[in-house]
Structure to design on (614 residues):
């Protein structure tokens, strides 16, 4: 296993793939931090499922399997999905969670219909479509990896440039509006970037699990810090680590799909954070509680001793 | 006969999910249904590994256990101060990932297609018949789904009042001495049970659709829980019948078509519902504006 791992690192193609999943991990971790703060974590899940009809329509229209086209299609249907969710929550009494569920399942249902339509039409070129369910980063083409890396890099750069604006919009949109910022535009941009991150993530980890790429690193990072800057960087690191680990393990152990391994890597980091993080972690909480209890007991026994000595003094008088 | 069995299967799935979905939508826990439908996967895989066959009862049991574990984990994370969205996302992706890995590591032992888990194969339902003493009693799936439907129906009917109060006002329910937590877990147990019973025929993701979309559509049509349950079941039945014929017409996935029809019904209701539709709300507003103007004049 060790030698195959080393062989992997030496292979230039694999180096590119690792680089791609590293950038993807950073990008989705960074975007995920903002979606987490804006309480839209499950948006990623809905958008991932909503991408399917876009991919299918792109394939039906063009008849070729090209990642650029697929991404364009899924970004368009992802944006339509965000408008749909907004419209349902805005113009009816249905709440956000049900709106997400409706968009998710209906878009996915339409996608499944289109996909079976493509499969039944006997087009021999469709074999790659089902890769979208679970992701196969390890068997990606070089051009796909370039695309993934470049788009992730763009996401990271935009987040870096607009960091202050995004921060304000995430924490206090009302204040941001008061400052004269174009809040609606920035929110749309953040949503658009979430869609892009999801669409890129689908290639690596698949439709079902891409939500984890956005949620888990961000939540894990939140345990360690109260500063958004630190959180974003940490989430990027955790995302990168999970992406690289997932690609490495699924590449060396041949019959493991990339998505689940990546997600489990992220989840184990989450568990470590939830248990061992200072202040917010489980251990810290239990320790703090125990110490408080001890302090209370001490002060109580001290009080009792004082009372006793007072009564004894009173008895002497 | 084939048509009949498939439509019946779809209708049973829709009815079971439709009833439970109403409570999920009312309690704002629709995405918990999504989570459960994904995270039962490791339970199914473990049941496969232990039982060595597609033993339905063992699978139901494994999945129900995993469903409850999911709910407990989500609650645990929520109580530790995490947003509910995020805790749902973390739990179900992790469990689903474990399930996928279990299945792909033991591919030679598990005769379970991952595509089938996601999309289901309702078209195969009529082929897998239950044979008892040499008699053909109809498809196994019908028996399983019928049983689940009955369990759900009886449970909800028995504790209708408790479920209702818990759905609308958990605080009041607690004050009245109703064990809210117990009914919460009972509901979640039922959701995971029906997820498993239906996932073989319609797949994990479309179960979510059947849980949420008919219930949400019914929510836009009425203000009474009893009627909402009824509408939800009817909408589910229309979607599965319509979906089947649509699938036949377009030569496409049956389960996918069922959800597509359901989605169309939702959009129609969203626009044209007499009480909560977009257009009736708009005309009401116009009338009010006109009335005000007349008063002023």
């Amino acid at each position: 296993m060790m030698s195959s791992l080393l062989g992997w690192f030496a292979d230039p193609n694999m180096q590119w793939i690792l680089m791609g999943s590293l950038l993807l991990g950073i990008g989705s971790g960074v975007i995920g931090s903002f979606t987490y703060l804006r309480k839209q974590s499950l948006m990623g899940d809905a958008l991932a499922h909503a991408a399917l009809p876009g991919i299918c329509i792109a394939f039906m229209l063009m008849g070729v399997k090209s990642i650029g086209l697929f991404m364009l299609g899924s970004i368009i249907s992802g944006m339509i999905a965000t408008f749909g969710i907004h419209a349902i929550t805005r113009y009816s009494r249905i709440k956000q969670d049900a709106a997400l569920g409706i968009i998710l399942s209906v878009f996915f249902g339409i996608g499944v219909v289109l996909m079976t339509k493509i499969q039944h039409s006997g087009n021999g070129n469709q074999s790659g479509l089902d890769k979208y369910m679970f992701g196969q980063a390890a068997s990606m083409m070089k051009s796909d990896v370039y695309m993934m890396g470049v788009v992730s890099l763009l996401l990271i750069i935009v987040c870096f440039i607009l960091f202050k604006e995004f921060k304000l919009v995430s924490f206090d949109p009302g204040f941001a509006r008061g400052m004269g910022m174009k809040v609606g535009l920035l929110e749309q941009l953040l949503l658009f970037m979430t869609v892009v991150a999801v669409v890129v993530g689908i290639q690596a980890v698949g439709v079902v699990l891409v939500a984890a790429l956005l949620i888990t690193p961000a939540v894990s990072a939140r345990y360690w810090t109260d500063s958004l800057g630190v959180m974003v960087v940490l989430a990027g690191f955790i995302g990168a680590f999970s992406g690289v680990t997932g690609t490495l393990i699924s590449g060396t152990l041949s019959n493991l799909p990339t998505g689940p391994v990546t997600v489990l890597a992220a989840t184990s980091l989450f568990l470590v954070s939830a248990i061992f993080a200072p202040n917010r972690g489980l251990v810290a909480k239990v320790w703090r509680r125990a110490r408080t209890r001890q302090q209370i007991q001490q002060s109580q026994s001290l009080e009792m001793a004082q009372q006793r000595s007072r009564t004894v003094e009173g008895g002497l008088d | 006969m084939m048509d009949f069995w498939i439509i019946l299967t779809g209708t049973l799935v829709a009815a079971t999910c439709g009833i439970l979905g109403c409570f999920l939508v009312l309690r704002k826990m629709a995405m918990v249904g999504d989570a459960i439908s994904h995270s039962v996967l490791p339970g199914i895989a473990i049941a496969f590994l232990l039982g060595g066959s597609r033993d339905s009862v063992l699978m139901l049991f494994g999945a129900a256990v995993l469903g409850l574990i999911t709910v407990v984990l989500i609650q645990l994370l929520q109580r530790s101060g995490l947003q509910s969205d995020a805790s749902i996302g973390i739990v179900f992706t992790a469990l689903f990932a474990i399930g996928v890995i279990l299945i792909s590591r033991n591919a030679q032992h598990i005769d379970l297609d991952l595509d089938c888990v996601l999309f289901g194969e309702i078209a195969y339902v009529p082929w897998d018949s239950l044979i008892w003493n040499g008699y053909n009693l109809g498809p196994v799936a019908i028996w399983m789904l019928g049983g689940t439907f009955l369990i759900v129906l009886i449970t909800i009917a028995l504790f209708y009042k408790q479920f209702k109060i818990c759905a609308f006002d958990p605080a009041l329910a607690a004050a009245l001495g109703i064990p809210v937590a117990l009914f919460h877990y009972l509901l979640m147990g039922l959701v995971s049970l029906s997820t498993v019973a239906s996932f073989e025929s319609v797949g994990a993701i479309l179960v979510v659709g059947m849980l949420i979309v008919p219930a949400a559509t019914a929510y836009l049509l009425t203000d009474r829980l009893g009627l909402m349950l009824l509408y939800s079941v009817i909408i589910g039945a229309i979607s599965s019948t319509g979906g089947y014929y649509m699938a036949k017409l377009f030569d496409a996935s049956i389960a996918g078509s069922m959800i597509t029809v359901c989605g169309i019904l939702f959009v129609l209701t969203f626009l044209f519902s007499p009480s909560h539709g977009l257009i009736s709300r708009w005309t009401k507003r116009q009338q009010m504006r006109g009335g005000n103007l007349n008063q002023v004049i």
Notes: The two ends of chain A are 85 Å apart (CA to CA). The mean pLDDT of chain A is 86. Residues 15 and 26 of chain A are 17 Å apart (CA to CA). DSSP finds 14 helices and no strands in chain A.
